[in-house]
Amino acid sequence: MKRGLITWDKSEIPPVVFERRIERVRRLLADRQLSAVVVYSDLWRSNQARFLSNYMPYFNRALLIVPDAQAATLLCGLSPRVYTWIRSVTTIEDVRPAGNFAKPLFELAAERNWKRIGILDDPQLPHDIYKAIHSGPLEVLNVEGRALYVPAEDQTELTMRRKTAAMARSILADELPKGVGGVDHHFVGILERRFRKAGAEDLITLVTNGDSVPAPPAGKTLAENCSVSLAVEYRGHWIRLSRPQASAQVLSDCKRAFEKSLDQPQPGSCIENLGGLSPYEAGPGSIFALHVVLQVGGKRLFYGDTCWRSDAGPQIL
Amino acid sequence: MAESGWDRLLLYGHSWRKDFFRSLVNFNFFGPHAVAVLSKSGELSILLSHPWDHEFLAGHAGARLAWSADFRKGLEGFASGRIAIAGLELMEAKFTSAFHEPVSATAAVEKLRRIKTPEEIEILKQAARLADLGYRHFMDTAQVGMPEYELVAEVEAFLKSNGAEDNFMLIASGGTEVFGMRPPNERRLKRGDNLITELTPQVNGYYAQICRTLVLGDPNADQRRSFEIFHEAQQAAQSFLKPGVNIRDVARVQNDVFRRQGFEEFTGSKYTRVRGHNLGLHPDENPYVLEDVDCVVEKGMVLIAHPNTYLPLSGYMVFGDTLVVTDDGCVSLNQTEKKLFSKEV
């Protein structure tokens, strides 16, 4: 299920965190002489709007609009019947219905006399919204994502990702040894229960018995030296984790191979960007996952963690 | 493709909307993007965005496979000729700019997908069966004092343990203050609650849905009266649905039940969304069952009729079954009893 519990625990992310992030937006708007910046959000591409407002949709699309002076507005594809709920889990008070996103955006701009706006990662807007906005009366400038969405420079973001990674390592360390000999679907069900009860919003589990890369469960029995690769979202913060079921010695070998690959990626390793607009894309990033492969007894064992690039080099979260 | 003069048809999917891609290549990809490219001579190519997807599919697909972390660059290899894209609207603008004036094949492919083959209906039957079992588990597990999200965790665990790829699920609990469903929250279930849910497990790519209402404790008179209206409305849709009727009338016969009871106000968008929708590789497919939607029903369509709405009697209530259109009517793929469920607490 995408997503489970969506909430805003203000002891984890105090409102001042969002205020600081919005301040950064406003500085950029002033520098670039823009009246507002528009941030696209959907069920999957929610990182940027979540970073600025804690808005994470469970379905449909939305535009978060952060003006230079007023409070943010959410143009939302969801029904007004859930706006009370949206207000309860985000910093946003002004939520407006939107089927066609361009029209309400232009109305808002006309209402406030905006002529020039920015769009975060404009070329990555969905085609229909891009065409509609660019055929309208506003001057639209691209604002590159890294100007406003900077997870690796944000202590709260790093803390939350560390918390997510620690949760994932702990649950997987508990459950993986018990999973061997059972059917992969059943194992995935056990993980779902554990992670969802711990408050995870989303969980994607890939498994392999070492004869392929990790893949969705297919009703196979998990064998010794199987590997599990997780994507976990907690409070909107994604991490990736891969672990094999193996002896302490083999795990130690995997860890060494991982550390070696952190310095210099080894053949067969896989790098994913977790600091972009989607949860994980192949390629490097300021927050990234690295997965390495170790050959043991003719089987491929997968080991990976989520890291960030600090001034002192890559650090495991 | 021949009729439309397309040289290539691209079926695009991203992590949220894999359905167009999976309508041609039923592969549950993990990376953020995938596209299946069909040439007019029938040659199939697949472009993926994650190396693990590429390696896993290699040797299985009977197609030319490639992957690229730079998906835009990968698309450039398919840019020549007249290009049609199913899922064009979902694609990032920087991807569509790889093509010269691509046309949308979204509506055309949706129309093709709307009528299910016997094989697809068999898979949907499995998904509906799992929805029934999931709802049974939902009822067995729900108890006073349990937070909504823990109940959802249990249901999710059950469905995944039983082979669901995914599940689209909404929930709400409470009384007349409940205006709609949403993801689970930390509210603890109380005696007398309406506990409403829609479960939509995905099996082998295909989603089937069930909507039911469970009362924790003995239903009161308003809850019973409310359910009778929902039951009559859903039954009206199920009795009416057959090849040749229009979707707008499937909505109308449901709304007429509310109108006759003096609740017309609650058939509009302020209180409800749709009277149902098509099902398949996406849990919320076109056509939506609404009085302003013009679409003639055909044999092989699979849709849910659910008159879900708010009523002042007992708040938002849900009730619906997955229906497959047959030669002369429709049959429900769900086997869960059609009643207002209650549980002793």
Walkthrough of the structure:
The complex is a heterodimer of chains A (317) and B (345). Chain A is 33% helix and 28% strand. Chain A is α+β, with helices and mostly antiparallel strands and 317 residues long. Chain A has a six-stranded mixed β-sheet with strand order 4-3-2-1-5-6. A five-stranded antiparallel β-sheet of chain A has the order 11-10-12-13-14. A three-stranded antiparallel β-sheet of chain A has the order 7-8-9, with helices on one face. In chain A, α6 (155-179) runs antiparallel to α7 (184-197). Chain A is elongated. In chain A, 53% of the residues are buried. In chain B, the strands form four sheets. A six-stranded mixed β-sheet of chain B has the order 4-3-2-1-5-6. In chain B, strands 7, 8, 9, 10 and 18 form a five-stranded mixed β-sheet that branches. In chain B, strands 12-11-13-16-17 form a five-stranded antiparallel β-sheet, with helices on both faces. The relative contact order of chain B is 0.13. Chains A and B meet through α5, α7 and β11 of A and α2, α4, α7 and β7 of B.
